[in-house]
Design a protein that fits this description.
The chain is α/β, with parallel strands linked by helices. It has one domain (3-178): 3-Layer(aba) Sandwich (Rossmann fold). The chain contains eight helices and five strands. It has helices at 14-25, 32-43, 47-56, 58-74, 85-88, 101-110, 121-143, 164-178, and strands at 3-8, 28-31, 78-81, 93-98, 155-158. The protein has a five-stranded parallel beta sheet with strand order 2-3-1-4-5. Helix 3 crosses helix 4 and helix 6 (101-110) packs across helix 7 (121-143). It is globular and about 40 Å long. Residues 185-190 have low confidence and may be disordered.
């Protein structure tokens, strides 16, 4: 049994890589971004609006935090991509994916989930910096966390120049080598 948390910079490939690793290790996959999109749908507001509300209203973060905490207590054999999953699920293998800011902006510009609707790489970089700084302030204020604090992670991978497949392969090898508890289960559906 194993729990893996994947954190990282915007555009580093957290969700893509988590899905690949989940499939290869036959683990359930969760995403805090999906949790947040679910909250936005229930409230019938756009994702970006919910994100902006969350910058001022700590109740949004508390809902997401509690869901992760309960998930970590109630389940085994899963992977979650969540910027703060490492903090809320301390018994996990903690992975951090980083990416240079230009590559981050290019990836987010191309992605189907470009909620901010950037039109250029330089515009994307400015907005990503603003969002990242806002998140850092919230994490410090709400949890007294410096983010990212690389010492909190078991494995750090720079994804700037390598494919999602290659990143997933490195994580799979790391899990198999470093998690004595990992045993693939026949029942677990990715």
């Amino acid at each position: 049994m194993v729990i893996i948390t994947i954190s990282g910079s915007p555009g580093a490939g957290k969700s893509t890589v988590a899905r690949l690793v989940a499939k290869r290790l036959r683990l359930k996959h969760y995403s805090s971004g999906d949790f947040m999109r679910e909250i936005a749908r229930k409230r019938k507001i756009p994702f970006l609006r919910l994100h902006l509300i969350g910058q001022k209203d700590p109740s949004i973060d508390k809902i997401l935090d509690e869901r992760q905490i309960q998930l970590g207590k109630a389940q085994d054999n899963f992977i979650i991509d969540s910027r703060l999953g490492f903090h809320f699920i301390p018994n996990s293998l903690k992975i951090f994916l980083k990416v240079n800011e230009r590559e981050s902006a290019k990836r987010i510009l191309k992605s189907r989930r470009n909620e901010e609707s950037f039109s250029t790489v330089s515009e994307a970089i400015k907005i990503i910096r603003k969002r990242t700084n806002s998140n850092k302030m919230r994490y410090k204020k709400y949890y007294n966390l410096k983010f990212p604090d690389y010492k909190a992670f078991d494995l750090i991978i720079d994804t700037s120049r390598i494919s999602s497949d290659a990143v997933a392969n490195r994580i799979v090898q790391f899990v198999k080598k470093n998690s004595k508890a990992y045993k693939p289960t026949k029942n677990t559906k990715p």
